[in-house]
Amino acid sequence: MDIVGFVALACGLIIGLGAVGACIGIGIMGGKFIEASARQPELMNALQTKMFLLAGLIDAAFIIGTGIALWFATANPFKG
């Protein structure tokens, strides 16, 4: 396997593991939000705001990883 194959493998791992991590994180966070809002319904609005903020940050981390992987795929410094 040459360098281009390793770069493609690395890009796939970055995107795949980032997606799995983001999905697991948002799933756990959503479950905890449902549990917390069932226990204390009066705090649901404050918790919902924080949950959406954290969901955006988790997705931002995944999107940054995807951007870095696409940068590696298109601007390969080892090719040439």
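the 2nd protein, sequnce then structure:
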Amino acid sequence: MLVFLGIYLAVALMWSVPTWLTAAYLAASLVCFVTYALDKRAAQAGCRRVPERTLHVMGLAGGWPGALLAQQWLRHKSSKVSFRTRFWATVVLNVSAFVLLNSPWMAGLAG
């Protein structure tokens, strides 16, 4: 997460980041954290679980910082190798899209 913070700050200083995007990351992270917490509770109670695909899509949509915190603090979805591999792939895709969409190259394509 510190690496993303560094990337975020670099992008913000070089090209600027819209305020709404920062708010979107925070909101998506909060929703993702809560979803992981609910899924952990469901797992412990033997109830219906949140599909892994849903967790990955939420992370890809910008909720991965909240997902990462939930994995560490709640110890949920932190040991299954196939899940973690897909999770980190979504993080790389999300961060790459973040940089690309805020870069001057994208502005050049738009106008």
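The first helix runs from residue 2 to 14. Residues 19-99 form one domain.
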